[in-house]
Design a protein that fits this description.
Keywords: Cell membrane, Membrane, Transmembrane, Transmembrane helix
Main location: membrane
Shape: globular
Radius of gyration: 20 Å
Membrane topology: Multi-pass membrane protein
Number of domains: 1
Order of helices and strands: HHHHEHEEHHHHEHHHH
Protein name: ABC transporter permease
Largest sheet: 2 strands, antiparallel
Distance between the termini: 57 Å
Helix content: over 70%
Structural class: mainly alpha
Strand content: under 5%
CATH topology: ABC transporter involved in vitamin B12 uptake, BtuC
Organism: Agathobacter ruminis
Length: 314
């Protein structure tokens, strides 16, 4: 049971951060379907930093540098979405899909080149081992093994909630996602606010990626994927109605099912059931489909999301 709690908290922290990122992007008017790709590049950058850091590096330095690398990679990736969707008015669904496809392919090529360079041409593996980095992130509360990134996720959730409800900047950002022409008429720079929303999504998505590989996997290596966590975060965002507090508890529900798929073999009564392990692995995605099927009709998405801003339109 402790293992189930541990993995639920870890997966919830991933889903909260990434879903919050998607929320800020869509609240500004930009649909960000590229969260999966952003997570992949964030995870890759963080794993590279962990591999390159010396073994005697202090834990706090490992955590900070890894976070900075993951967040920076996520923001750079999100810039491609921002430029294409805001400046070139490209179809936002296609842009996000392209980023997801590039994420897996790009990470494979970059990691292979990274390994080949470090091994003088003897290692062509698309995986990065980061055992020493993963050990730096762990701490224990009794028998419960947790990760410092869970604390970071809780802090950022509080910060995001305060920012979302209590600041003028967030009010302007939300106005750009509801009625950008009206926002522009009172002097709000719609392009600037939409860039801000997408960059926040990149920042949080990159952090979500490094949390996923540093705490939610048992293989202790990055192999160019995050197993659909970005798509689950989109479901959490929609189920959470684009609101931070609802996203938080929605993430815990989805994380519970995701955790079950990882630890069911360690729970006696689940192991005794005549259910294939494949069913448990499919469970979080099946639940997301069912939930969205019943709640999507009542969802209140920002009115202007997905619509390129035309300054001349009224």
């Amino acid at each position: 049971m402790l293992l189930l709690i541990q993995y639920t908290l870890i997966f919830a922290s991933v889903l909260i951060l990434v879903a919050l990122g998607g929320m800020f992007s869509e609240r500004s008017g930009i649909i960000n379907l590229g969260l999966e790709g952003i997570m992949v590049f964030g995870a890759m950058a963080g794993a590279m930093v962990m591999v390159l850091l010396p073994d005697n590096t202090p834990k706090i330095v490992v955590i900070v540098l890894t976070m900075l690398a993951a967040a920076a990679a996520g923001m750079i990736t999100s810039l491609f979405i921002a430029v294409a969707a805001i400046n070139f008015k490209a179809d936002q669904t296609l842009v996000g899909t392209a980023v997801n496809m590039i994420g897996v392919a790009g990470a494979t090529v970059i990691v292979k080149a990274f390994n080949t360079n470090r091994s003088n041409g003897t290692d062509f593996s698309p995986k990065l081992d980061y055992v020493k980095g993963q050990e730096a992130f762990s701490f224990h509360i009794g028998d419960l093994r947790l990760n410092w990134f869970i604390v970071v996720a809780i802090v950022l959730l509080v910060v995001a909630t305060v920012y979302f409800y209590k600041t003028k900047s967030a009010l302007r950002l939300r106005a750009c996602g509801e009625h950008p022409q009206a926002a522009d008429s009172v002097g709000i720079n719609v392009y600037k606010m939409r860039y801000l929303g997408v960059l926040i999504s990149g920042f949080l998505g990159g952090l979500g990626g490094i949390i996923y590989i540093s705490a939610a996997t048992s293989t202790w290596h990055f192999d160019y994927g995050v197993a659909g966590a970005g798509f689950l975060a989109l479901a959490v965002m929609i189920f959470g109605q684009w609101k931070p507090e609802r996203i938080a508890w929605s993430a815990v529900i989805f994380a519970l099912f995701k955790a079950l798929s990882s630890v069911y073999m360690g729970i006696d009564f689940l192991k005794a059931l005549p259910i294939s392990g494949t069913v448990y692995n499919m469970l979080p995605y099946i639940v997301s489909l069912i939930v969205l099927a019943f709640t999507s009709k009542n969802s209140r998405a920002p009115k202007a999301e997905g619509i390129p801003y035309d300054k001349g339109a009224r």
